[in-house]
Amino acid sequence: MALVVCSECGKQVSTLAASCPSCGAPVAGAAASDRQAPLVNAGVLGKAVVAIGAWLVVPWVVRLLAFLAGIAMLIVMFRSAR
Ligand SMILES: [Zn+2]
Question: How far away, in angstroms, is 40 Cα from ligand 1 center?
Answer without folding.
Answer: 28
